[in-house]
Amino acid sequence: MDAPALMAAAEAARAMAHAPYSRFTVGAALLCADGSIQPGCNVENASYGATLCAERVALGAAVARGQRRFTAIAVAGPAGIALSPCGLCRQVLSEFAPDGHLLVLMRAADGSPRQATLAALLPDAFGPDQLHPG
Ligand SMILES: O=c1ccn([C@H]2C[C@H](O)[C@@H](CO)O2)c(=O)[nH]1
Fold first, then answer.
1. What are the per-10-residue average pLDDT scores of the chain (134 residues)?
2. Taking the domains of the chain in order of start, what are their residue ranges?
3. Under a CB-based contact definition with an 8 Å cutoff, are residues 92 and 59 in contact?
4. What residue ranges are annotated as transmembrane (predicted)?
5. What is the ipTM of this complex?
6. Is 44 tagged catalytic?
C-alpha cells in the first residue's frame, strides 16, 4: 500500500468538502480490495445533524459501486489539527471491517503520519455477532 498516495487522495478530496457551517473541511480516501481508491468529503447540512462525515461519504459511495472489502482509509483535515474518525464513522466502518484490520491513516498535529487499526480505535465493537448470537 502506498500510504502517502492514499493520504494525498484524501487531501485532494478535501477540496470538494461542503462545510459552510463549521468551515472544517475533511477529505477521506478509502482503499478498496480491488485496488481502487474511493474519495469522500464531508457534506454538511443546514440542519447540522444531517451532516455526513467524509469517511461515511467515501464508504457509501464505494459500497454503491460494489466494493465491500477495504484495506485502508486515509483522513485529512485542516493543517495543525490531529484528526481521527468520529465514533459514528468508526462504527459504520466496522460494518465492513469485521476483523478490525482496516488501517486508518491520519496525521498528527505536526503533520507527521499516524496510523492505527480500526480495532484499536474501536475496541469491543458492536456487530452482527451480538445482534444474531449463535
Ligand atoms: O473525522 C471526521 C471528523 C469530522 N468531520 C466533519 C464533520 C463536520 O462536517 C465537520 C466538523 O465536525 O467535520 C469529518 O468529516 N470527519
1. 97 98 98 98 98 98 98 97 98 93 97 97 93 82
2. 3-127
3. yes
4. none
5. 0.99
6. no
